[in-house]
């Protein structure tokens, strides 16, 4: 069968782009005729399959303009795909246009179909339990979830409503966790149109090796929602020889200033090392050289891919039990889950794993075995194939 995969970007720029490349190449290996339509090329790691640029204006957040869909529609008419698999396509008109021409599926990488800002109340840093509706204007007036710019607020309200309506025309939506499925059901989506299909590590399960003994690794945006300022507040409590490695960058100047302020308050700032974004072999070596990965997110993570990547290298995980994280981390046996926001327990967990090499080894081996057995690219694509083939079967 011929499949058209659509994403705003291609290249090694984010999780959706890596997912697109990996899934497309695996489908290609299995004999599918795969073609990628994309808006803009960024970075490396391009999918090794046929691709066509349709222009970023066709796929991006449309604000108050409706861009021409002609390049995308012409491509569909030319390729005549049996189905389409959408990734990050923020233009609801493009989603609806594709759905009208071909059976369409979507992998939902984040909260976009039930919250424009990630289900976190910014004033209190607590998760939001409400589905998206007109009352969100009152919520954001108090919590500042969608900012204070009136144009941005109106655009979000207009675009979100259209995106939800357009998504209901698709055959199915694929999500990585039961948490995401529950959010979509609460938003009014049909439970039978939702497939939970957990993600996979981009790194192969490691051969036997001994993880590092002094590095504690964090991978992600350096932001309040990800819990980085709180993590810095407890860094002085870590054992003397522990070094905290921060992989990532702050998304805004304000977030970066919060990180800098946290570093300045430390008694031993030299114990925290910022290394920026890392990928490929550089990131792989950081996973392998760390005694644990720490995930202090306060926002409800849709899944938490970096946890799988760490466990694939037998590196155990310490995480707050938020969003979809706890679902799979609990099953792996390779993680210590902490009640959300309990920084004291998180600090104690770091000390315990640092001091107890035997515990580290057992957790790492259990987590690694689970990932190798249950959370591989091949298993993920098996489930996709079953869904795709069932939908177009006569």
Short description:
The protein has 14 helices and 15 strands. With 394 residues, it is an alpha/beta fold. The protein folds into two domains: 2-120 and 151-200 and 376-392, Rossmann fold; 215-374, Glycogen Phosphorylase B (Rossmann fold, 3-Layer(aba) Sandwich), CATH 3.40.50.
Describe, in plain words, how this protein is organized in 3D.
The protein has helices at residues 15-29, 70-79, 92-101, 136-143, 150-167, 178-186, 228-234, 253-264, 280-288, 305-312, 325-332, 343-355, 357-374, 377-392, and strands spanning 2-10, 33-41, 50-53, 83-86, 104-107, 120-121, 126-127, 172-175, 194-196, 215-219, 243-247, 272-276, 290-295, 317-320, 335-338. With 394 residues, the chain is an alpha/beta fold. The chain folds into two domains: 2-120 and 151-200 and 376-392, Glycogen Phosphorylase B (Rossmann fold); 215-374, Glycogen Phosphorylase B (Rossmann fold, 3-Layer(aba) Sandwich). Strands 3-2-1-4-5-8-9 form a seven-stranded parallel sheet, with helices on both faces. It has a six-stranded parallel sheet with strand order 12-11-10-13-14-15, sandwiched between helices. Strand 6 and strand 7 (126-127) form a beta hairpin. It starts with a strand and ends with a helix.
